[in-house]
Amino acid sequence: MMTPEDRETLRAIPETELIFCHHSFGMFLRNAFRGGQFPGLCLRCRKLVEASDEPMSHDALSSVAIREIWKTLRQDKS
Length: 78
Prior knowledge:
The structure is a single chain. This protein is mainly alpha-helical. It contains four helices and no strands. It has helices at 4-12, 25-34, 39-50, 58-77.
């Protein structure tokens, strides 16, 4: 669960800088996916990775998840 402050921080990050979340938020997501947490998000991200040219990996899943969460947060603010 993200705190309101975490949501604001992620929402404010430009899309080109989302890669900088890889070692922090991305690691949290990778560990969560491996532990069976957030099954709906994991499934959605798996489908998006499968539809891309990127090989399936927890790194790929977390990258997609970060971007999808970021998009949702940006839409919610509008």
